[in-house]
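Quick one, T. Sequence first:
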Amino acid sequence: MQYMGKDPREGAVLVASSDITSNTASVSLTGIFDPEVMYFIHVMDFRPNNNQRSLQYRWLDDSGAISITNYHEGGRYGFSGGGGSTGNSYNADRAAYVNLVGGVGNASDEHGMFELWCVPNTANEKMAMMNGAFHSGDDEVYSSRFVVGSRLNTSATRATGIEFVVDSNSGGHQINNATIRVYKLGTAVNPLKSLGHRREDNWVKSNYIGTSIKGQGWVKVAEMTAADGDSALDFENCFTSSYKRYVITGTDCVPATDNSHLNFQYRDASGLNSDVDYVSSWFGVYANGSTSEGHADDSTVGAVMYNTGSTSNEVGHFTCFLDPTTTNTPKIMMYRSINQNNATHTQYQTGNVNYNDATVMTGIKWYWSSGNWESGTIKIYGVND
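C-alpha cells:
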C-alpha cells in the first residue's frame, strides 16, 4: 500500500463533501472542524448561474455566521488573452463574506478550481492560504486566470463549519455547479501500530490521501525517473475515466541545459497535442526580493517551472492539480513550483495553464525548453473521492 504520509491515519482524511449540479443558493458544511487542526479545502468545477460572478465563503460556528465585519483579503492575480496582465495586486475588507475568486464565467465550458489551506477552529485569527485557476466569462480577453493570496478573519470565535455562496447570496446569484471536498490533515497515531499487526478490514472506514484498501485518496497511477540524457518523460494512457482530477508532482528536476523551462504537452487518443491551444499566466518571487510575471497566449506548450538551473545544487520541484478527463473547455491546470537558477536566486512561482479543447486527454509529455533531462522524478496520482 502507498500513502501520502507515513500511514493513512497520519495522512489526510476526507471529512466533508458536496456535489452541486443545479442552482443552489448556498452550501453549508457544519460541525466538521476540530480544534487546532489544519484543513485542505478543494473546490472543483465551480460555475455560477450568472456570468462573471464571485465565489465567496464565511466561517460558521455552532450558532451560525462568525463576526461578519472582520474579513480581509489580499494577493495577486493575472490573466492571459488579449490585453493579458499578471502584475496585479489586490486587497479588500469584506462585510459579510470573503472572496475566493471573482469573474468566473457561466457558460457550459467555463469553470474554476480553487484550494484553501486553513486552521478554522482556533481562538486566534483565522488565516487561510488560497490558490486558484479558472476560465473567465469574457471571451478570450480573460481566457485564463490565476489568483493567489491570503484570507483573514480577526474574530476569536472558533469556527466549526464553512458556507459557500455567490456574490453574498444576493441578486439571484447562485452556485450552478461545484465539487467541494474538505480534508483534515491527520494528527492521530495509528492504534494498530501498538498492537503489532495491520488488519486491513480496520482501515476500510476512513478516506485518505494515499491508497487505502478501498482505493480512496491520492492513488499513484504512474511514475517516471529521468536518466541523464533522456529527451522527455512521456506518460501515455495515464489519464482514464476512473478519476475526475489528478495531482502531478515533480521532485529534483534538473535540466541538462542551464536556465531551461519545464514544458508539457497533453496527449489524447490521436496522439500528442502541439496545436496553439495552450494559454497561461503566472507570477513568481525570488529570494532576493525581485519578482517575475508573464502570460502566454496561443502557445503550443504549457510550462510549470521557468529558468531552472543545471549547475551543482540547482534543482526544481513542482505540484499541480488538473482535470484532463473533463469534457469541458478548457482543461485547467493549477500549479506551484520552486526552483533555483543560480546561487542567489531561488524562485517561488504560481500560475495556471488552460488547454482550450473539449477532447478527453489520455497522457502528458514533460520535457525541457532546451536540451535534455539530467535528473528528476515525476509522479501522477488519481484523486479518488
